[in-house]
Amino acid sequence: MALPVTFKHSIAAMACAIPLLLSTPVSAGWDEGYAAYHSENYAVALKHFEPLAAQGDAKSQFQLGIMYDHGRGVPKDAEKAAGWYLKAAEQGYADAQVNIGMMYDRGEGVPVDHEKALLWTRRAAEQGAVTAQFNLGVTYQTGEGVPAPDPQQAVAWYTKAAEQGHAGAQSNLGVMYDDGKQIPENPERAAFWFRKAADQGLKQAQTNLGKLYDEGRGVDENAEEAVKWYRLGAEQGDDVGQYNLALMYADGRGVPKDIKTSVMWMRRSGDNGNVDAQFNMGAVYQNGMGVDKDPKAAAAWFQKAAEAGDSGALMQLSRAYAGGNGVPKDPVRAYMLLDVLQAVDPEAEDLAAERVKRVTFLNPAQIEQAKMLAQRVVSRDIGLEAALR
After folding, report:
1. Which of 32, 71, 242, 350 registers the highest number of CB atoms within 10 A of its CB?
2. Phi, psi of 286 (to 5 degrees)
3. CA 106 to CA 143: how far, in whole Å?
C-alpha cells in the first residue's frame, strides 16, 4: 500500500522567498539582524529585530516569532511566538500566516481553533505559499479541521504545491491516484507524481515508485527498476523499501538471489518498526534461513510483532511459551496470548484448535489468571511486554 506524507508543515527558518500581500519597507538594521541570525548570534539578531518589529516591520515580527517558537536566543515561549506571528500575518506576511495557522491547528500558544487555522492557511495559500498549499491538501484529504474530507479540494491544493516542486504534495497526489480510495484510480498519474517526488529524494515516493515497477501498474513491469527505487528508499531508511528490497533478494527478482542480503534488509526494516519484517525475522531464526537457528532470537522478533498486534506473531509466540522454545515454558502466558489473539483476530487460522489444546494444560485458577492478563493487555491497562514478564 502506498503511504502518504500526511503531516502538516510550519516554517522554521529565516525565509524571504514568499512575497508579501502588502509591501513592507525594510528598516535599517535588518541586514545586520539577518546576518547575525544566520551566524547563530541570536543576541545580536534580537537587538536588531525587536525595534524593527515594534515599528511594525512584518519580517522582523515573523523572525521574532521564529525565535520564540524555537527558543533561539530567547526562552521558548509559544504564546509570544503566536503573538508575533499574528502581527505579521495581519500585515499579509505569508510565512507568518502559515505558522499562525499551524499554531491554531495544534493549540500551541493559542487555543485550538480549526476555523482560524483554515482561514490563515488559506490566506497564505492564495498568495502562493507552497507550504500552506500542501497543508490545505492534507486538511482536505484527511478531513482534520474541516467538517469532512474533500478529495477534490485536496487534489486542487496538492496540485498547486506539486507544480511548485513540493515533494510531499507530489507524493500525496501519487498516493491518491494510486489507491483510488478518494478519487478515480489512475496508475499513470500516480507514477508521474511519484517520479517527481522520487527524483527529489523523497524516500516514500521512491519506494512507491518501486512498487509500481514491481507490479507493472502505470509503468511497464520491470524488476530491475523496482530494485533500483526500493534500494534508494531503503538506503534512506524507509522501512517499506527495506522490506520490499529484502523480498526481491529472497526471490531473486531484479537481483541475484541472496538470502543473507535479504536477511540484512529484513532486519533493518524490522529495526525500523515494520511489523511484517519483524514477523519474518522471527521465521528466519525459527527456521534457520540464512542464519543459524536461534529459538530465543525468533521469540524476541515474534514478540516485537505481537506487541504491534500481528496475529501470526501472537500465535507463534503462544506456541513458543507452550513449548518453552526460546522462552521459559509457561502455559499461562501461552493461553493468555491466545486470548489476546481472540480479541485481535477472532478468525485467525488454527485459533480454536490451539485454544482447545492449551486449555487442557491449565487448572481453573490458571485459566482465570490468563484471562485477566489478556483483558489487561486488550484494554491497554498494561503492554504485552509487561504481561510476559
Report:
1. 242
2. -65, -40
3. 15
Query: CA dist 92 to 4, 79, 115, 259, Å?
Result: 31, 20, 18, 58
**Pairwise CA distance, residues 107 & 297, whole Å:** 44
Q: Give the range of the structural domain holding residue 371, as residue numbers without chain letter.
A: 296-389
Domain annotation covers residue 273: no
Q: Is residue 356 part of a domain?
A: yes
Q: How distant, in Å, are the alpha carbons of 155, 274, 292, 325, 350 from that of 295? A: 49, 21, 10, 6, 21
Grid coordinates in use for 280?
Answer: 519474518
Rounded to the nearest angstrom, the gap between the alpha carbon of residue 245 and the centroid of all alpha carbons in its chain is 20
Q: Name the pTM for this structure.
A: 0.87
With respect to residue 123, please indicate whether it lies within any of the assigned structural domains: yes
Q: Does residue 7 surpass a pLDDT of 90?
A: no
Q: Pick the last residue of a domain from 80, 112, 127.
A: 127
15 pLDDT higher than 50 = no
Q: What residues contact residue 213 under an 8 Å CB cut-off, 6+ apart? A: 219, 220, 221, 222, 223, 225, 226, 229
Estimate the crossing angle of helix 94-106 against helix 130-142, to 10 degrees. Answer: 30
Q: Is residue 379 part of a domain?
A: yes
